[in-house]
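Thread: pyridoxine-5'-phosphate complex, take 2
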Amino acid sequence: MSVRLGVNIDHVATLRQARGEPYPSVVDAAHKSLSSGADQITIHLREDRRHIQDTDVEAVRLVTKKFGKPLNLEIGCHPEIVDIAIATEPDWICLVPENRQEQTTEGGLDLKSTEVFEKVRLTCQKLKENIKDLKISLFVEADEEILNKCSEIDCEAVEIHTGDFAKAYLNGEDTDSYINLFKASQKQCESLKIAHHAGHGLTGESVIPLVQNNLFIEYNIGHWIICQAVFDGLATVVSSLKESLIQK
Ligand code: PXP
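Output below.
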């Protein structure tokens, strides 16, 4: 099975925002990721704008268009952010829960709550009415009742929250129960005709058992890629800077 990799570049913007400098550039990050084989770029425009900024969204959109690859825009259901999403016309929108206090997205949409369900349903309706050919994924837990709720909403995919699995893997715990959970969600999604994507907390190692079990057709990975890129690039940057300090 051929799987897609969505590279989430939010944390390039986190580094930039930490110093208020114009670098590192998310446009360059999108460019480098796509020219290195990424199948799509994922960015999350949060209501608190802690990393990706409004101007980044349009700039990254231009890069994905240039490469003919999808932009997957993650958003919460806030009207202001929904309007920006509509103006951007991404290929995919991933709806996520958003809580101002959280360090990162902490779990899937609670579609068992009637209030959340209605909010998500109406947001999807508005997005579909306003963006031609838009595809929507809902970020949810691998839970039977929640997946059934997803099938009542106009969406093409679910992105299963893999954060707890990834944490357990990192801690060396037994992850069989998660693999079985994802097998069940995959089967349910097949019968509901909803695509089965994965995201959150994954690393180069923890993604392997998911791939070996053919569990998902798309993986959205961010934090680990940017962290690993520091170490894969550090030696090159230090030696080249050292070189330029040598007076010729
Ligand atoms: N998918 C969703 C829905 C997310 O909210 C995030 C984090 O922004 C990711 C994937 C990427 O997660 P990570 O940065 O932990 O790889």
